[in-house]
Here is the input.
Amino acid sequence: MLSTLLEAMFYIFFLIGLISLIISGLVLGTWKTGPDNRADHYSQSKEQRHYRTNFGLKAGGIGILSALIAVCIYIIQ
Here is the structure.
């Protein structure tokens, strides 16, 4: 019983971490090329860039925290 509960929790935290890190990378523009980043920089206001950066960092933090919890659950199993 405990094993299946830990396994379910592992998968939940792993998926939350993975999805959050993907969202963070997309929002922060991690997988864009140089010309795309320059175009985004000049087409957005400073407030929009600030909001996007804050959102991306928060999503990345949630992703890293969830991944660490998943690793701890994996070690406990």
Observations:
- The mean pLDDT is 92.
- The radius of gyration is 17 Å.
- DSSP finds three helices and no strands in the chain.
- The CA atoms of residues 28 and 54 lie 9 Å apart.
